């Protein structure tokens, strides 16, 4: 059952746990005003014991550099707690932001949260981050 964490006129952030993954769904633009809300939501979930995350950006129509910076910041925080992070977003603008920034290789990006939650989290999580997932497997 999906639980709302943040709900305001600009954005809704909710989560659900699927196959040991905490799926954090973001619905709204990720920018200067909204990125801190997502960061605080993930920090709160970490404080409650969640460790393995899927950041669902499928309902994000726009993400600026501050949104991308927030993703990096929460990745570092999740890594400090021995967790994992996967990104779910449909191909398009948001994936393009990761490509342009050069960060696409540092994240496991899936086309949907359903795809991202297949399989249980790896015990080593983000231990090798920011190396790309393909580099870790070699």
Overall description:
By secondary structure, this protein is α/β, with parallel strands linked by helices. It has a single domain (3-137), classed as STAS domain (Transcription Regulator spoIIAA). It is built from five helices and six strands; from the N terminus they run E-E-E-H-E-H-E-H-E-H-H. The chain has helices at 35-47, 65-80, 93-101, 113-116, 133-137; strands spanning 3-7, 11-18, 21-28, 52-59, 84-88, 108-110. A six-stranded mixed sheet has the order 1-2-3-4-5-6. Strand 1 and strand 2 form a beta hairpin. It starts with a strand and ends with a helix.
Q: Tags for this entry?
A:
six-stranded mixed β-sheet; single chain; globular; Transcription Regulator spoIIAA; alpha/beta; 138 residues
Mean pLDDT level: 90
* Unreliable residue stretches: none
Q: Please state the second-level CATH architecture.
A: 2-Layer Sandwich
Give, in spatial order, the strands making up the sheet with the most strands.
1-2-3-4-5-6
Report the top-level CATH class. Answer: Alpha Beta
End-to-end span in angstroms? 37 Å
Computed over alpha carbons, the radius of gyration is 14 Å
| Gross geometry | globular
Tell me the total number of β-strands. 6
Class by SSE composition: alpha/beta
CATH topology: Transcription Regulator spoIIAA
> What would CATH call the homologous superfamily?
STAS domain
User: Biggest sheet: strands, sense, closure?
Assistant: 6 strands, mixed
Q: What is the strand content?
A: 25-35%
Helix content: 25-40%
Q: What's the helix count?
A: 5
Number of domains: 1
